Amino acid sequence: MSTVLAYTSPALGHLFPMTPLLLELRDRGHDVHVRTLGSHVDLLRSLGLSAEPLDPAIGKIVHADWEARGPRQALELTVRTFCERAALEAPDLERAIGQVHPDVVIVDINAWGASLVAEAWGGPWIFFSPYTPPLRSRGTPPFGPGLMPMAGPLGRLRDALLRPLVLGAAEKAMVPRINALRAPRGLAPIDTADAFFRRADALLVTTAEPFEYRHDDWGDGVTMIGALPWEPPAEVPDWLDEIEGPVALVTTSSEYQADEALVRAAVEGLAGEPWTVVATMPAGVSAPDDLPANVRVVEFVPHGTVLDRAVVAVTHGGMGATQKALARGIPVCVVPFGRDQLEVAARVVHAGAGTKLTPRRLTAETLRDAVREAATRAEGARRVASGYAAAGGAAAGADRVERVLVRR
């Protein structure tokens, strides 16, 4: 069989969705090697994967887009962060390739420097995206603001007018920096974000219709494999077994982005509701005082153990947390704080699988109303779960990896 080398960005929200794919490849007899967060190397080794840590300096470059004053500055900070990391990722992956001698390389879509090395290496390589990539598509509004698709001439006009404003700003920030990194490796310059994200032999995306919009023009290079909701094995907390009746899960981002306001609004707004509310705070942020009787706030709890009891979930709109709920057929209320979360929220509403509430409208009262409404949309969530399952999951992703190997 073949040797597979996977490289992730320093984020659990990217490592965990990739893990089922790597385990599937392992189960098929491939020799799987991973470069990822040092804190999770031992876990991956316990799963039968060969794992080594990323250069620890990469994780010290913090993604601080939550400090931005508006979407344009947030984009600039994101590009700057990924390019600063890229300068360290590139030699890091080069060392790994020299040590492992892989037959195929799988690169996290946010590891821009690693992707340049994979491209220059010359062997087969695959981009792995745990969120919807910002690719152009007919009938789909430009990626970023979280606009809903609009059919007909008016929709086409809206998208045509907005696309250069939205994507133009993104490409203006991204393309020159990317080309400055490409030139020393003898790689030709790119002129669009689409060109950058379509360089690999395949792009695996962890989503599927009806959650994702229809993209007939994405082509064979992009494969939607459905949600891959994975987390480390964990025991069910004793206190969870003691809860009677339905549960509502409230989650925040694994990478800090000042979204503790979501938990604080939930503590007040969901007090007295017919659910036991289980909420997790962002790392390093203390829980509110004087919690209502039906609310429990914890520093950490595996989402799956709570979602097995939940009837509704409240998320910041991270793809991982949102898909963990939807893959179980649990509707969600999304309060998007930035990054790709506006797009996730739009897709939740589009699929009829939950509700969206903007942070500027977030209060205890508005959140309570939005969660109540979300809880009525279980049928839409079940449709999304069926769509994810039909896409094939990790098995479909491994099939695609193996086809790339055969073709090359």
Helix content: 40-55%
Rounded average pLDDT: 90
CATH class of the largest domain: Alpha Beta
State the end-to-end distance.
15 Å
Name the CATH superfamily classification of the largest domain: Glycogen Phosphorylase B
User: What best-fitting shape do the alpha-carbon axes yield?
Assistant: globular
- The CATH topology label of the largest domain is Rossmann fold
Task: Just name the CATH architecture of the largest domain.
Answer: 3-Layer(aba) Sandwich
Topology:
Blueprint: E1 3-7, H1 12-27, E2 31-36, H2 41-46, E3 50-53, H3 56-59, H4 71-100, E4 104-108, H5 112-121, E5 125-129, H6 152-182, H7 193-197, E6 202-205, E7 222-224, H8 238-241, E8 247-250, H9 260-269, E9 276-280, E10 295-298, H10 303-307, E11 310-315, H11 319-326, E12 332-334, H12 341-350, E13 354-356, H13 364-374, H14 378-391, H15 393-407
Parallel strand pairs: 1-2, 1-4, 2-3, 4-5, 5-6, 6-7, 8-9, 8-11, 9-10, 11-12, 12-13
Helix pairs in contact: 1-15, 4-5, 4-6, 9-13
What does this 3D model show about the protein?
With 408 residues, this protein is an alpha/beta fold. It folds into 2 domains: 3-226 and 392-407, Glycogen Phosphorylase B (Rossmann fold, 3-Layer(aba) Sandwich), CATH 3.40.50.2000; 238-388, 3-Layer(aba) Sandwich (Rossmann fold), CATH 3.40.50.2000. Helices cover 44% and strands 14% of the residues. It has helices spanning 12-27, 41-46, 56-59, 71-100, 112-121, 152-182, 193-197, 238-241, 260-269, 303-307, 319-326, 341-350, 364-374, 378-391, 393-407; strands spanning 3-7, 31-36, 50-53, 104-108, 125-129, 202-205, 222-224, 247-250, 276-280, 295-298, 310-315, 332-334, 354-356. It has a 7-stranded parallel sheet with strand order 3-2-1-4-5-6-7, sandwiched between helices. Strands 10-9-8-11-12-13 form a 6-stranded parallel sheet, with helices on both faces. Helix 4 packs across helix 5 (112-121). The mean pLDDT is 90.
